[in-house]
Specification:
The chain has 274 residues and is an alpha+beta fold. The protein has 8 helices and 10 strands. It folds into 2 domains: 150 residues, 2-Layer Sandwich (Formiminotransferase-cyclodeaminase, Chain B, domain 1); 103 residues, Alpha-Beta Plaits (2-Layer Sandwich), CATH 3.30.70.670.
């Protein structure tokens, strides 16, 4: 692994791809651990949420997503799954993210190769997102207005389907409100939505949260959305899901890092440097 000093650098062995695999299991630690262990040192981070019943595994490379997907399909059953977060499969989302000098075309090639592999090896249908369509469009239209791009035309009996895409680096971020006002959380989420922010207001156990994807985090980072929410409601706590690019961290006031659930050890670069 190459050294990282402020920006991603490409290894001489090929493109550097991050893949943030979302699986539909957030409660059984033994199962989550067994699935993650299949990828060994390619796992940069694991974040699990029992209410969402979902785990986010931040991986590096093209091989790790395949072994994690196979392990999840073998161990999980969508028919018995329940959780707050929307999902179409036990391996729900597989985004390939180019880092450093890695090109969008290389990420697309990795995405398409994964889709073919999933269809051939696992028999699980895949919907592509990226230049063709967005992930929310897949959630709305899978198996109704949209047919899978690879694999069977109907969901796998136990594994459902996968949304496999390419995207730039984003930040998954939750803000928990001090009062369990779901209607208020939904109103706040609606007001936050923009070309750089996707947001939902969700009931999570006894609490509510504004759950977000900051899809242009260098433009709208955690500090900005937290400030916007704080103008409308008291905040209990903030939660980073996965990792952030160092550039996003450095745009925030270090005095606020703890409040925002950020830190130098929570960057993609820091985990890669290990």
């Amino acid at each position: 692994m190459s050294e990282f000093s402020g920006a991603f650098q490409v290894r001489e062995t090929g493109p550097v791809l991050e893949c943030v695999v979302n699986i539909s299991e957030g409660r059984d630690r033994a199962v989550i651990g067994a699935i993650g262990a299949e990828a060994g040192g390619a796992v940069l981070d694991v974040h699990s949420d029992p209410d969402h019943n979902r785990s986010v595994l931040t991986l590096i490379g093209e091989d790790a997503p395949r072994v994690v997907a196979r392990a999840a399909v073998e161990r999980l059953d969508l028919r018995s799954h329940d959780g707050v977060h929307p999902r179409i499969g036990v391996v729900d989302v597989v985004p390939f993210v180019p880092l450093g000098d890695t090109t969008h075309e290389e990420a697309l090639a990795a995405r398409d190769a994964f889709c073919r592999w999933s269809a051939d090896e696992l028999g699980v249908p895949c919907f592509r997102y990226g230049p063709e369509r967005t992930l929310p469009e897949i959630r709305r239209g899978a198996f109704t207005t949209l047919a899978p791009d690879t694999g069977p035309s109907t969901p796998h009996r136990t594994a459902g389907a996968m949304a496999v895409g390419t995207r730039p680096v984003l930040v998954a971020y939750n803000v928990w409100l001090a009062e369990p006002d779901l209607d208020g959380a939904k109103r706040i989420a609606a007001g936050l939505r923009s070309p750089s922010v996707r947001a939902l207001g969700l009931q999570v156990g006894e609490a509510v949260q504004v759950s977000m994807n900051l899809i242009a985090p260098d433009l709208t980072g955690p500090g900005a959305v937290v400030a916007a929410i704080a103008e409308q409601a008291a905040i209990d706590r903030c939660e980073l899901v996965g990792l952030v690019p160092r550039s996003v961290l450095e745009r925030e006031d270090p005095a606020r890092w703890e409040e925002l659930d950020l830190g130098t050890d929570r960057t993609i670069e820091a985990r890669l440097a290990r």
